[in-house]
């Protein structure tokens, strides 16, 4: 990013936009309990209408596929066993899955009702078209921020039209509607009311969000809670550490929370990393055992859960690789027609497993710039690029190979015109902005539960092309929104 010495946009307008963002909850909490606005672009990105429509068609099919894979427990156990041996955290998840689903004679029964709230992240590659980066099946947040970014740009267009049109690529572009906040809440509320009805509507539908201790990305979460409250759902927040002593079983596998009562939906915004199950106070001989058993306890009850343990396994990078590598005809196992399978395959980027042959090929013959090396981690900081890949591959023990995969590196279209990024109240000119498109879906027990046939809005994160880490929270990313061009 190159900062211009003269102001690109009036400081009055920047302050106006920043205050709008804070006022509408588009913020991170600081350590001293103040709020800092999320970084954002001053005007939206353009996407061709037919590309966008293609993604709207294919994303619910991906969710249908992932749901059915996640409920195919024998397949999960057999196909991911090597990865689980190579990645200790996924080894923990697989052991939990085994306790719930692995043995027909075991004492545990998985009564949980799967609520798949998923964000599928795409990049529109210059050469290959729109391709999946990853599936997010746990802690797939920031849907509320996605909608708010679209609303912020609508505010800019109305209040400061000259500035808006100065920085937009195409004056004739039409904003893509984004109801991410309302539709995610609608789907969650539908699941909550379904579970509540199963128990005779004895109490108000109740939603439990499992959160990380002292996290700063709370306003996005609270926006969803406020919307759920509007839809008649009570909301509460707890950490795994709190839940360890506060959960109990009621009649007919009802999940009960101390001082609250019955719970209808459990939504995990934690649980995708070891740290979420670690408690220094427990001083355990086996790390993270007690708090991970809390997650197991939840799934033994008749309660809607996102993400289930099996959903988290089904959205892993290894499963993405397996689905990418298998022929379309095999998707019929999970209820997809050949046409549906072809649509899904059209957006899956090439992936390769790590083994001695792959390493030999990569070292001698591969174009290093065409690949990215990924492990199973969620969020930023888990990718290796360029010449660093060879170094990393050479450092890996053979026992670690199955935790990693090579994936075709995507080079999305750079925005035709420069744009202004706003971070901490400061404006910066970006000449090479590229965008990642996350589409949300909501399915309950395998059926779409939004008013848009399972689709639930989008999240756009943009970053300079020169930056590898594009997270809003941890990288150089900024919130953005979409306009459609023909």
UniProtKB/TrEMBL annotation:
Keyword field contains Metal-binding: yes
Keyword line: ATP-binding, Glutathione biosynthesis, Ligase, Magnesium, Metal-binding, Nucleotide-binding
EC number(s) given by UniProt: 6.3.2.3
Enzyme class: ligase
Top-rank lineage group of the source organism: Bacteria
Pathways per UniProt: Sulfur metabolism; glutathione biosynthesis; glutathione from L-cysteine and L-glutamate: step 2/2
Gene Ontology terms for molecular function: ATP binding; glutathione binding; glutathione synthase activity; metal ion binding
Domain Glutathione synthase substrate-binding: 206-314
InterPro entries in the cross-refs: Glutathione_synthase, Glutathione_synthase_a-hlx, Glutathione_synthase_C_euk, Glutathione_synthase_N_euk, GSH-S_sub-bd_sf, GSH_synth_subst-bd, PreATP-grasp_dom_sf
Cofactors required: Mg(2+)
Single GO cellular component term: cytosol
Homology family: Belongs to the eukaryotic GSH synthase family.
Descriptive protein name: glutathione synthase
Species of provenance: Aliivibrio fischeri (strain ATCC 700601 / ES114) (Vibrio fischeri)
Organism phylogeny: Bacteria, Pseudomonadati, Pseudomonadota, Gammaproteobacteria, Vibrionales
